[in-house]
Amino acid sequence: MNIELHTPEKPADEATLKDISSFLVKHLERFGDPEEHIRMAMTYSLDPVRGGFVVVGRDEGQIIGAVVVNDTKMGGYIPQNILVYIAVDASQRGKGIGRKLMQAAIDKATGGIALHVEPDNPAKKLYESLGFTNKYLEMRLQQ
Q1: Per residue in 67-78, pLDDT tens?
Q2: What percent of the chain has pLDDT over 90?
Q3: Which of helix, strand or coil describes residue 6?
Q4: Which of 89, 48, 49, 46 minimizes the C-alpha distance to 68?
Q5: Distance between CA atoms of 101 and 107, rounded to whole angstroms?
Q6: What is the pLDDT of residue 142?
Q7: Distance CA 52, CA 7 (A)
Q8: In this predicted model, which residue has the larger pLDDT, 135 or 143?
């Protein structure tokens, strides 16, 4: 697998962004969001003022995994980074691709990383094996 990194300094072109967002819509499955939200998160990541990055894993030119991380600019009292999306092609799961993508994201990030995971998401074990802990119960108010 080849890993490519897109940053505000080295952003992806529009065609690549479309490919990544389409991939995430398909492979996030029930844990996903509408493509519009995924595009907003990637736009944030690649904005020089906001920041973050997108990690993409490719095999023979095809996307087999992707990660989107937003920089909160608030390191210290909340984690500096939020892992917004991660997905691996359903046909490629169980081969260590998610771990390699997560490790690339951890290596690139400056400061802590927060992520949200459903209790029944099989990826929870991967996150725990990489050192992520469950410190808080998240509560939200949607208005």
Answers
A1: 999 999 987 788
A2: 79
A3: strand
A4: 46
A5: 10
A6: 86
A7: 7
A8: 143
